[in-house]
Amino acid sequence: MGGVYREPKLVLFSNQVRSACGFAQAATGPFYCPADQKVYIDLFFYQELKTRFQAPGDFAQAYVIAHEVGHHVQNLIGVSEKVHQARNRMNEAQSNALSVRQELQADCFAGIWAHHAHKARQIIEQGDIEEALQAASSIGDDHLQMQSKGYVVPDGFTHGSSEQRVRWFKRGIESGNINACDTFKARAL
Ligand SMILES: [Zn+2]
Question: If you measure from the C-alpha of residue 10 to the centroid of ligand 1, how many angstroms do you get, rounded to a whole number?
Answer without folding.
Answer: 15
